[in-house]
Amino acid sequence: MRVETICVLGGTGFVGRHIAGHLANTRVRLRVLTRNRERNRQLLPIPNLQLIEVAGYDQERLTEQFAGCQAVINLVGVLNEGRGAGHRFEDAHVKLPEHVIAACRTAGVGRLLHMSALGAAPDAASRYQQTKAAGECVVKAAHSENLAVTVFRPSVIFGPGDSFLSRFAQLLQFFPVLLLPTPRLRLKPVYVGDVAKAFVQSLEDEATFGQCYELCGPKVFTLRELVDYVATLLGVRRLIIGLNEAWSQRQARLLERVPGKPYSYDNYLSSKVDNICSDDGLARLGIHAAAVEAIVPGYIGRRRAQRRYDDFRRTAGRD
C-alpha cells in the first residue's frame, strides 16, 4: 500500500505534533483537523501539512475531509471528561471511532491507525479505560480487506512538552510539599518519539495490518521513583508524601472540583492498575525503546539551569 495523503485527528496534540515532525518534508501530505486553527499555528511551517479547521467530527464532515486520503490516524483521547459534545468519554472514545470507520468506508480510505491505551479493558474500574476498550473493539472489528487497521496501546508517554513528568516538575518547583496519590503504581513510560515512529513505520507495512501493539519503555518505575528522579534532576529537596488508598481517593474527589480538573476520581481508578506491557510492541516493530534516563534530563534538567540563571540575574540586580 502506498500512502500519499493522511488525515490526522488529534494531530495538534502531544503525539500528533511528533508524528507531523517525523513526516515533515516527506512525500506524504498531511491534513490535520482542528477545532481552532489559530491556537495551533505552530504547525503551519511544516510545508507538507495542511491545518484544517472543522466545527465537529460527525460522519459527514469526516467523509468530506477523508476524500482523497489513503490513510487516517486517530489520536483523539480525553483524560478527563468535560460537559461539551466531544469532551465526554463515550463521544471521544467510542462514537468518534464509529464515525471514523463509516467515513473511511464512504471515502474509500484503505488504512486506519488508531490510538488506544494500555490498561483499556471492558471490566476496568475507570470509565476512561472502559470506553477506550469499547472504541478499540469497534476499530478491530472493522479490519477487513478494504480497511486495514492497526491499534496501538501505549503506556504513559513522556518527552519534551509532556503533561506527565513536566507537570510534576512544575509542582516540585513551586511547592515545598507534594501529596502523591498511588505512589506504588508501576509504570513503563514510553518516549513520545518512539510512539511516533511506531505509527509512521506501520503506515505502509502490511505485516502490521490487523495487529495490536503495546508500547512501553525498557524499564519499570513506581510513580514515587519517577517523582524522586524529577526532583533530583531539578536539584530540589521536597517533602514527598505518598498517600494511601483512602487519602488518594479523597485527594481525587477534591481536585476534580478544581477549575481545570488537574486530577479526577476516574484518574485515580485508572491508576489502580499497573501500566506495564505484556508484549514488547516496539521490539516487534524493530524500534529500540529510549530510556527515561536518556531523554528526561534533556528537558527537565534545563529547568534547573534556567533557575540558576534566574537566580544569578536576581543576585546581579537585573531582575
From TrEMBL:
Lineage: Bacteria, Pseudomonadati, Pseudomonadota, Gammaproteobacteria, Chromatiales
GO molecular function, one term: protein-containing complex binding
Every NAD-dependent epimerase/dehydratase domain range: 6-205
Native species: Nitrococcus mobilis Nb-231
Name the UniProt record assigns to this protein: NAD-dependent epimerase/dehydratase
Origin superkingdom: Bacteria
InterPro entries from the UniProt entry: ComplexI_NDUFA9_subunit (IPR051207), Epimerase_deHydtase (IPR001509), NAD(P)-bd_dom_sf (IPR036291)
Stored Gene3D superfamilies: NAD(P)-binding Rossmann-like Domain
